[in-house]
């Protein structure tokens, strides 16, 4: 059984989020999704518009997601040590990021999924303002 893992804030859930989850689930037998807690989002200097409890329930309801769990750290190696997933999925806009490259150098499989052009929670938040 191939276990996949991905994470996100999933604030103002949109088609780009769905595309990532659908694509990831198509490449593994079980997909675990870490949903960033409000505290973790705050540590990143942001604020989610939708409370964590609602965001995780939305993600749990998606048919491509087998398990949704709270994401309390951005340290992917810590997550791997807890969950022992085989593949981690991330948007291709993170391809040049040093943390992801280091993950690959440790022999762990990273799959970069295509970013959905023209859509993001940041853009949606700006439109709401």
Key features?
Rossmann fold, 6 helices, 129 residues, alpha/beta, 39% helix
Notes on the protein architecture:
This protein is of the alpha/beta class and 129 residues long. It has one domain (3-128): HUPs (Rossmann fold). 39% of the residues lie in helices and 22% in strands. The radius of gyration is 14 Å and the shape is globular.
Describe, in short, the structure shown.
Helix content is 39%, strand content 22%. The chain has 129 residues and is α/β, with parallel strands linked by helices.
- CATH class term: Alpha Beta
Query: What would you call the shape?
Result: globular
Q: Quickly give the structural class.
A: alpha/beta
* Proportion in helices: 25-40%
Q: What is the gyration radius calculated from CA atoms?
A: 14 Å
Total tally of structural domains: 1
CATH topology: Rossmann fold
End-to-end span in angstroms?
A: 45 Å
Layout: helices, strands, pairs:
Elements: E1 3-8, H1 15-25, E2 30-36, H2 38-43, H3 52-60, E3 67-71, H4 76-83, E4 87-91, H5 98-105, E5 109-113, H6 121-128
Parallel strand pairs: 1-2, 1-4, 2-3, 4-5
């Amino acid at each position: 059984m191939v276990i996949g893992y991905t994470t996100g804030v999933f604030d103002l859930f949109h088609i780009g989020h769905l595309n990532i989850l659908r694509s990831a689930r198509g490449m593994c037998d079980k997909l675990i999704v870490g949903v960033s807690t409000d505290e973790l989002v705050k540590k990143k200097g942001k604020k989610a518009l939708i409370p964590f409890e609602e965001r995780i329930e939305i993600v749990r309801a998606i048919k491509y997601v087998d398990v949704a769990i709270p994401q309390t750290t951005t340290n992917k190696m810590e997550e791997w040590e807890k969950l022992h997933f085989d593949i981690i999925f991330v948007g291709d806009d993170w391809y040049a990021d040093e943390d992801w490259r280091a993950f690959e150098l440790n022999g762990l499989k990273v799959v970069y999924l295509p970013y959905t052009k023209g859509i993001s929670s940041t853009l949606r938040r700006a439109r709401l303002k």
